[in-house]
Write a structure and sequence with these properties.
It is a single chain. By secondary structure, the protein is α+β, with helices and mostly antiparallel strands. It has helices spanning 2-20, 43-56, 67-73, 89-98, 127-137, 144-162; strands spanning 34-39, 60-66, 81-87, 108-114, 120-125. A 5-stranded antiparallel β-sheet has the order 1-5-4-3-2. Strand 4 (108-114) and strand 5 (120-125) form a beta hairpin.
C-alpha cells in the first residue's frame, strides 16, 4: 500500500510539473502570475545561489522538494525540477494568525527546473498574483507598498541568481 501512495504522489507531482512546462520546450509556457527567467547556471548552482541570496536578505529556507528524485524513486524519469520553499516568519506569522488558511498557499515557493533541451529556468509567483489570488481567496490583504517592495526584491534576487 505504501508503494501505491508513493507512486500516486510522484505521478501527481509530475502531472503538476507538466502544467508549467512541456517536453521539448525551448521557451516556458506563459502562465498567469508566474515570472520565469532563464538561468546561466546549472540547477544545483541556481538553487544554491538562490538559497544564499534569500538567506542574505533574512528569508528562512523551509524545504527543497526534488520532483526528479521523487520520480526516480518510483522508476520514472524527468528533467531536474526542484521547488525551494521559503519565507520570512516576521511577515508571515501575523498573517497566519489572522488568516490561518493562508498557510495552504504560503510560504512562498520558487521552482528551478531544466527543460528537455537542458536550459535551466527559475520560476516564481509574482506578488500581484499572490495578492489577487492567494491572499484574496482567504479574505486577507497585503499592504501594497510591502508587496511592491517584495516584488522588487524578488526581481533583484532572481536577476542576481540567474545571470553570470
Amino acid at each position: 500500500m505504501t508503494r501505491f501512495w508513493t507512486f500516486a504522489v510522484a505521478v501527481a507531482m509530475i502531472g503538476c510539473a507538466s502544467l508549467i512546462h512541456y517536453a521539448g520546450a525551448s521557451e516556458p509556457r506563459l502562465v498567469d502570475g508566474l515570472i520565469t527567467k532563464p538561468s546561466a547556471h546549472s540547477v544545483d548552482a541556481t538553487l544554491d545561489r538562490l538559497e544564499a541570496a534569500l538567506k542574505e536578505r533574512g528569508f528562512m529556507i523551509f524545504a527543497r522538494l526534488d520532483h526528479a528524485a521523487a520520480a526516480a524513486a518510483v522508476g520514472l524519469q524527468m528533467p531536474r525540477e526542484t521547488v525551494l520553499v521559503f519565507g520570512n516568519p516576521r511577515i508571515g506569522t501575523p498573517n497566519f494568525l489572522k488568516y490561518p488558511t493562508l498557510a495552504i498557499d504560503l510560504p512562498i515557493k520558487a521552482l528551478v527546473w531544466q527543460d528537455a533541451s537542458g536550459q535551466v529556468w527559475l520560476s516564481y509567483n509574482s506578488q500581484k498574483y499572490l495578492t489577487t489570488a492567494a491572499y484574496a481567496r482567504h479574505g486577507a490583504t497585503l499592504d501594497q507598498p510591502l508587496a511592491d517592495r517584495i516584488e522588487r526584491q524578488f526581481e533583484e534576487i532572481a536577476d542576481a541568481v540567474t545571470k553570470r
